[in-house]
Specification:
Chain lengths: 233, 233
């Protein structure tokens, strides 16, 4: 039996939104790996912390948010090699992923580096999108709605062409792009249909109609949900 | 304390992909409700079966798949009233939902009928989309990809205009529309990028490159994933 790298989705924030499978793997993992910031903190780790095997070895990978990709790719190279050494020694490794490992996640960077050498498996998790919809109390998408997930770093032209005809939209990775995105949605007449959800399912969660966020406002860790679909359910 | 209606996502099929929260609510629910076919079978119920409180009262709602909406809406009216009687008597009700309750789910039909009279909460779950991606072993979407979720019952023109410029696409509710969708994707040159995933995460799971499904083929319970995004991870 050769060792396995598991990319495990730990869900959007509330540890109770981990799956039974994730919880089982995490609580028994001899080695856990996860991204951290310069302070050594990582969201996926904090979500899973209570469930972790106290004897687990920790592998941390520094998350580098620069526009230039070289340093981040080098950090993944280094992290992948640290993980590879454990796998070669026969120790399973659980890589902790916020949300789901294959939904805009960082797991793909390790997966692409290791999948040809080792057995790698993704364990799906609850994404922040459906957590946002649950907290907002309305469908993310329903019936025959087209649902679009749009990363905020895309340019306004690309975003506008998708937003021009839409039923249901989630704008992710909003961060520092918030003022631009707010302006874009305002120009397209979409403000009345949009909500900002910050830190869905976590104690610091906050939900605000986008129209109520002041122009200079800058919500952090936020997703914008737009719903124009039929509400005749 | 008044009683609560919980719309609980039980995930895509593997009972281990239920969340801890779903499992806790399901195992303690005095009343469970779910959709059934004419044989009395329901997928959400079968996923949750092992976790159910043996003393729970069951409320079943007949799932009517006709194009004409009247009979299905009447079934939801009736189901909502049966649930309302339990809530009025102070008994919490857990409505079991495949995947996630607010991701193209049936929960919205009960939610819309009951939310103004009772406390209703959605508990998010793992959707079939991320389960499909996990089983396929590639990201559903990554980096700054636009992800589109397209319901197969939409007309070809509407689908083609979305497919014309896309990075990552999931076509859901394929069912009897399979031959038409296959033809559409073939005409757009998308066959080489598409996989069919049937019954993701369940024992009967099957994954096939769309190009390998014979033209008369008719996979059941299938989702089609298309990935044209960059694979330079």
């Amino acid at each position: 039996m050769s060792a396995v790298l598991y990319g495990v989705g730990v869900g959007p924030g509330d540890p109770e939104l981990m799956t039974l499978k994730a919880h089982g793997l995490i609580s028994q993992a001899p080695v856990v790996a996860y991204l951290v910031n310069k302070k050594g903190e990582g969201l996926a780790h904090s979500i899973a912390a209570e469930a972790l095997n106290p004897a687990a070895v920790h592998v941390t990978i520094l998350m580098i948010m620069a526009v230039e990709r070289g340093p981040a790719m080098a950090a993944y190279d280094q992290g992948a090699e640290a993980i590879a050494r454990h796998l070669e020694a026969g120790r399973d490794v659980v890589f902790l992923c916020e949300g789901d490992p294959f939904f805009y996640g960082s797991f793909m960077y390790l997966y692409s580096r290791l999948k040809d050498r080792f057995t790698c498996r993704a364990v799906p998790g609850v994404t922040s999108l459906t957590a946002c919809a649950a907290e907002l109390g309305r469908p993310l998408a329903a019936r025959n709605d087209v649902l679009k997930v749009l990363p905020a770093p895309l340019e306004n032209d690309a975003l506008a062409s998708e937003l021009d005809h839409c039923d249901a939209v989630a704008i992710i990775k909003v961060g520092r792009h918030f003022p631009r995105i707010r302006g874009l949605l305002d120009g397209l007449g979409l403000l009345p249909h949009a909500h900002v959800v910050e830190s869905a399912s976590m104690p610091e969660q906050k939900i605000t109609p986008l129209a109520d966020v002041p122009e200079g406002g800058q919500p952090y860790f936020s997703t914008i949900l737009i719903y124009k679909g039929s509400e005749a359910w």
